[in-house]
Write a structure and sequence with these properties.
Number of domains: 1
Shape: elongated
């Protein structure tokens, strides 16, 4: 089902992208320390996963065809949650 994303949709997607970029920068900086990686590796992986989720959600929000954008998501759990909507 195609639609034209609203200005609000585009602004929300841009903010999600910005939040994702900030998470990526933070994760990259923290990952430079072997001590932090050794002690907080699982938390750093969670930061990466959240960043991926934000990117996928931003793509859905700004998409002309949200259902097609959802179908392209590779994260099965997120795709399942969004498909149920």
């Amino acid at each position: 089902m195609e639609r034209e994303p609203s200005q609000l949709d585009l602004l929300l997607a841009a903010e999600l992208d910005h939040a994702r970029d900030m998470l990526v920068m933070m994760g990259d900086e923290l990952a430079m320390s072997q001590e932090i990686v050794a002690e907080h590796g699982t938390a750093l992986q969670a930061v990466d996963i959240v960043g991926q989720m934000l990117g996928h959600i931003a793509n859905v929000v700004r998409a002309d065809d949200p259902h097609a954008a959802i179908a392209r998501i590779g994260m099965c759990e997120l795709k399942t949650k969004l498909t149920a909507a």
